[in-house]
Amino acid sequence: MGKGGEKGEEAAERELPPPPSPSPSRRFYSWEEVQRHNLRTDKWLVIERKVYDITRWASRHPGGQRVISHCAGEDATDAFQAFHINPTLVRKFLKPLLIGELAPGEPSEDRNKNARLVEDFRTLRKTAEDMNLFRASPWFFSFYLGHILAMEALAWLTVSYLGTGWIATLLLACILTTSQAQAGWLQHDFGHLSVFKKPVWNHILHKFVIGHLKGASANWWNHRHFQHHAKPNIFKKDPDVNMLHVFVLGDSQPVEYGKKKLKYLPYNHQHEYFFLIFPPLLIPVYFQIQIIWTMIRHRFWAVSETSPPSSWGSGSSPPSSWGSGGPRVTPEQGEDRSSLRCKGRGRMHRPFLESHWFVWVTQMNHIPMEIDSEKHRDWLSSQLAATCNIEESFFNNWFTGHLNFQIEHHLFPTMPRHNFWKIKPLVKSLCAKYGVQYEEKPLGKACIDIVG
């Protein structure tokens, strides 16, 4: 279940299909009936025991069609609660989709899930709400944005005082890489609606940071990243592990492709070409192709969606006066061409360096974990099977944008990152109670596991 802002939700409400014809009495369904409706042209899901027909609505879902469709035929209660910060508003346009509810004799959890575990997790979420752990600190995020802008200013000072030599260029590339990596973690916060109480403000800042500071598409990020959160490490549902034309991931998929003799690439040597392709080219090549394709396919023509890809240089849209290296100044305005060339070289190296940073941070939490087909686990078990944590420290928190708390982030996507450490002991206690593995490792071992 993806997220949409208040504007997106209101627009979606206006486009709702007509409600189903009322039946003389309330209709009850069994789980067996619900689970049959998981096809592309026939989609039902359950939220808090109520059964909804989302077949016609899925294409209008503000968070994207695929993310809500991945929950077809299932209980989507925990996904619904995890992704929406204003469920009361969302329920307004769920009403016309309501077709009935589960029969009184049916359990609230589908596919023989542990009812006590599910209930205890929902109690844990209520505890987090009572502790105000979903309330963001404006000081934290103000400081975070400030330190990014400070690095942008430092990039200008580097050129001004050190000249245009290669030492200045390398230093500039490092500064801009750090600035852009941290901007990437910040856009992630806004994208998950974890900063402001009102979704609309999160969306505005998200579009600004990812569109104008990074030169990427907010809609592309939403539609891709929400699928990952809904079904992490699940084949055909998580786009982060569906890279069959480049890599074959997991334990079962390499065996399957070996039997089928499918040879897009020499997968038996993928451990060798991984380091040449994936870390350096993910952001400047693979993501840029996806962004352009998504823009064309879904017709995302807003200004922030058409900003030049970050690998082109500045990371800012043409009308904007700010890029990833600061305000543009032409030679006619007082800056010589050699200084511009220095900035250009720094910006050219930056996306490749940032791509390395991004890959190692994001993949150390997922690639070493279970990657497999859909097993219809409960929310807690499915997230813990696909994610692990990195040990907490000031550097690790800053370096990873608090994604070292990947488990807590996946369980509570809308929780501000500075509160993860507070909910962590309660999550570990719940996992221990039900024998769910809670994996945490040092930063160095996490990198080694990717190599392995």
UniProtKB/TrEMBL annotation:
Main location: membrane
Signal peptide interval: none
GO CC annotation: membrane
A biological process from GO: unsaturated fatty acid biosynthetic process
Region described as Disordered: spans on this chain: 1-27, 308-342
InterPro entries linked to this entry: Cyt_B5-like_heme/steroid-bd (IPR001199), Cyt_B5-like_heme/steroid_sf (IPR036400), FA_desaturase_dom (IPR005804), Fatty_acid_desaturase (IPR012171)
Pathway: Lipid metabolism; polyunsaturated fatty acid biosynthesis
Classification via SMART domains: Cyt-b5
GO molecular function: oxidoreductase activity, acting on paired donors, with oxidation of a pair of donors resulting in the reduction of molecular oxygen to two molecules of water
Keywords from the named record: Fatty acid biosynthesis, Fatty acid metabolism, Lipid biosynthesis, Lipid metabolism, Membrane, Oxidoreductase, Transmembrane, Transmembrane helix
Residues covered by the Cytochrome b5 heme-binding domain: 26-103
Topology of the protein relative to the lipid bilayer: Multi-pass membrane protein
Subcellular location, record wording: Membrane
PANTHER family: ACYL-COA 6-DESATURASE, FATTY ACID DESATURASE 2
Recorded family membership: Belongs to the fatty acid desaturase type 1 family.
Name of the protein: FADS2 desaturase
